[in-house]
Amino acid sequence: MKRLALVCLIFCSSLLGQTNAPVATSAFDVASVKPSIGGSDRALVQAFPGRLLMQNFLPRTLIGFAYGLADFQVTGGPSWIGSDRYEVQGKAEGDATVQQMEGPMLQALLADRFKLVFHRETQQLPVYELTRGTGNPKLQPTKEGSCTIYPVDAPAPRDAAAAASTVFCGFLHVTANGVNRGLDGKGVSMATLAGSIARTLRRSVIDKTGLTATYDLRLEWTDARSE
Predict the structure, then answer these.
(1) Is the pLDDT of residue 152 over 90?
(2) Residue 60 has pLDDT above 70, yes or no
(3) Does residue 1 lie in a domain region?
(4) In this predicted structure, which of 51-60, 107-116, 159-168, 177-186 has the lowest mean pLDDT?
(5) Do 101 and 200 fall into the same domain?
(6) Domain-embedded: residue 98
(7) Domain check: are 138 and 72 in the same one?
(8) Which residues are 54's β-sheet partners?
């Protein structure tokens, strides 16, 4: 296990001064962090009651996940945080919520296993804006019953099989077939869509649509960079 100290600077889109990262106040009772086996670049995260499983994650992405950031907002540290992949498993006694396991408890684990040193720094950077076109929006409002709200502030669902087949609101799924790309989601807010676009473009995207409802989305496009 690599145990080099990391210093991660989080660059935001405005000059607001420096703020300290939140201090993790809870930890997993039992946890393991080990290199991923296999050559796939697909990452998977699953939350079960009292357990968190994260497979095939870059350390940079784990840091972003723990602190609610996109990986492109994380910089600093050795080069391997953007190349090596790890599997994380954590078990917690009691009724830890999904939010606790994926946030403060993951922060504590990274600090323990990787000796993570983290602070936030703001810097002015170019951004994109997501805006409305002319006329009425053609987005399809979320249909009642099309998705289930995922309770991040509650323990994970106890029926893992049922949860795996449930369509949760606000989760976007990206597909790729050659140069063709697709994006599907139910109950998606414009802020969530902006965040997904930001991770694809690797640049912050600000929601300026003024749309406050949620929508059932199906987007298709061609990625000329893959030709």
Answers:
(1) no
(2) yes
(3) no
(4) 159-168
(5) no
(6) yes
(7) no
(8) 45, 88
Domain boundary among 85, 100, 120: 120
Does residue 93 share a domain with residue 36?
yes
**Tokens (6 digits) for 154:** 């509650």
* Pairing relationship of beta strands 116-120 and 140-141 according to DSSP bridges: unpaired
Q: Residues 18-54, buried b or exposed e (16+ Cβ, 10 A)?
A: eeeeeebeebbeebebeebeeeeeebeeebbebbbeb
Residue 40, pLDDT > 80, answer no
Range of the domain at 136: 128-226
How far apart, in whole angstroms, are the C-alpha atoms of residue 27 and residue 18? 26
Give the pLDDT confidence of 19-39 residue by residue, as tens digits: 344 444 588 999 999 999 876
Please indicate, yes or no, whether residues 75 and 143 belong to a single structural domain of this protein: no
Which residue, 50, 141, 36, is CA-closest to 92? 50
H/E stretch holding 102 reads: helix 98-102
Residues 132 and 65 reside in one and the same domain: no
State the residue for tokens 């991923």.
Answer: 36
**Among the three residues 64, 95, 120, which one is the final residue of a domain in this structure?**
120
For residue range 198-227, list pLDDT tens digits in order: 988 889 999 999 999 999 998 888 876 655
- pTM listed for this prediction: 0.76
Which residue is associated with the tokens 């600077």? 9
